TrEMBL record:
Organism whose genome encodes this protein: Clohesyomyces aquaticus
Keywords: Hydrolase, Signal
UniProt-recorded name of the protein: Alpha/Beta hydrolase protein
Stored Pfam families: Abhydrolase_6
Hydrolase recorded as keyword: yes
Signal sequence residues: 1-19
Domain AB hydrolase-1: start-end pairs: 98-241
Keyword flag Signal: yes
Any one Gene Ontology molecular-function term assigned to this protein's record: hydrolase activity
Amino acid sequence: MGPTAALSIVSLLAGFAAARNCANLTIPVSISARQGLFKDVPFEGNLDATTFSQNFNNIGQNYSQVLLQGYQTLTGNYKIAAQFCVPEAGSKTSTIQLLSHGIGFDKTYWDVPFNNYNYSYTDVALKKGYATLAIDRFGIGNSSHDDPINVVQAQAEVEVLNTITTMLRNKKVPGITGSYTKVIHVGHSFGSIQSYWLSALYPNNTDGLVLTGFSVNPAFLPATIAAWNLHIARLNQPLRFGNTSNGRGIDISAPYRSGKVVGAVQGFLNKVGVKLSSQDIWNEIATTEVANLIEGYNHSVTSYNYPSGYLAWSDFTSQQYTFLLPGYYDLSLGLYAESTKQPVTAGELLTIGSSPSSSPFTGPVLVVTGQQDAAFCGGDCYANTKGAASIPAAAAAAFPKTSKFEAYIQPNTAHGINFHYNATGAYNVIQSWLGVHGLAA
Ligand SMILES: *[C@@H]1O[C@H](CO)[C@@H](O)[C@H](O)[C@H]1NC(C)=O
Ligand SMILES: *[C@@H]1O[C@H](CO)[C@@H](O)[C@H](O)[C@H]1NC(C)=O
Ligand SMILES: *[C@@H]1O[C@H](CO)[C@@H](O)[C@H](O)[C@H]1NC(C)=O
Ligand SMILES: *[C@@H]1O[C@H](CO)[C@@H](O)[C@H](O)[C@H]1NC(C)=O
Ligand SMILES: *[C@@H]1O[C@H](CO)[C@@H](O)[C@H](O)[C@H]1NC(C)=O
Ligand SMILES: *[C@@H]1O[C@H](CO)[C@@H](O)[C@H](O)[C@H]1NC(C)=O
Ligand SMILES: *[C@@H]1O[C@H](CO)[C@@H](O)[C@H](O)[C@H]1NC(C)=O
Ligand SMILES: *[C@@H]1O[C@H](CO)[C@@H](O)[C@H](O)[C@H]1NC(C)=O
């Protein structure tokens, strides 16, 4: 730790909420990314999203290849929203964990306020003395949005991640005056793919990789896309993903949460002679797009104003299928995640499989995947392992030069590690592993 980092902590504390030592930053980045130029795909209504999924999953074609017209160099200046946190005043570190969320979430994945933050990855890392920077990936959340087919693609996001890493090392992030000499890249899912991708292109710009919700087996992606039942994001949550012109005014989010909507709907149905139990009505609202329609009926909630071509899984049932292990997560947290979910762009899906096939990174790599992960393990990381100890363990082949590779399988956990009762169990494994592999705070 250099004296500069200590100074930065002192200067930042003034602006922090007392207990958590975190600040929201907006980071301007300039990037240049060589990436795909795809044919235009219509995204007018939900059926267009379904057509996209059908084409994407068709085993007779590589849809990315079908749409690819050539390559382009994207250059641009963008704004990246981030949450920066430092440990208790007085603790010192020059090691920072740079956190990249996966599809369907934003930077808050790492610091879920639910249940007084007891699912927070950030809290666990701070307690071990690390600083953390969680970004909204380029194109998502409060970071700049752009053309969802030809701008917001994986390669551009990797360039953003690499640029921010260099800025951290060189004290160039506005709002962070300290210098971080060690940057550990921690990802979840697509964020892990991008962290891996960074290590393949810029192996000298990372000091360690923690890839959660990850394997290098692409066999389960089509089932995941199918289960998402993708819809146009701005139609799925018009009041949150759409813009203010969609109208507001009647605030029904509070009564919905308190259960009053269930009673009102039941009263209405009774009047027209339909007898449904309140449990059935709750099901019909909470597990379908009815709940998504209601989300955002609140003047103070951000309107993200996502253009068509930003897609979202349809409802809570899709979310459970792809992220959650029944019986091992709190239903209220699942509903919370549904109410704060984020979209995916068509361009991201078309480029998710285009990472380099191996990384020359020489430092330590830890993969942590839930045993019942559907997207990266097909529901069981110990099945069909083809000789490796687990499906994630086979990722070792992508790191031929690493000093240390380990795959850890977290029990009773599906893809959304963060939302399971034992999330902090996995998070403690990660911090301990970093500590014994030369990356203590
Ligand atoms: C950062 O933004 C989040 C989300 O809007 C908010 O809850 C939090 O209070 C902000 N933190 C600070 C320190 O301003
Ligand atoms: C599909 O095509 C894209 C674009 O050419 C390519 O990057 C990707 O590797 C291909 N995927 C497979 C599985 O061949
Ligand atoms: C996104 O930005 C808006 C407007 O500044 C703010 O109200 C909102 O809390 C932010 N959300 C997150 C998750 O940072
Ligand atoms: C990384 O650093 C090593 C040693 O300084 C150097 O030989 C290598 O070319 C660098 N690799 C890249 C991709 O910059
Ligand atoms: C809001 O959405 C409508 C419909 O997509 C669009 O025509 C309009 O330009 C948007 N308004 C803003 C301020 O982006
Ligand atoms: C509206 O959203 C704000 C910010 O998320 C929240 O504090 C408030 O409780 C919400 N109001 C209702 C009535 O849900
Ligand atoms: C959070 O608290 C709840 C209720 O006390 C508990 O059931 C759950 O296991 C805790 N989760 C984590 C990740 O610590
Ligand atoms: C929670 O996770 C830790 C770390 O993987 C593991 O050692 C422990 O057995 C898990 N606990 C349960 C109840 O699954």
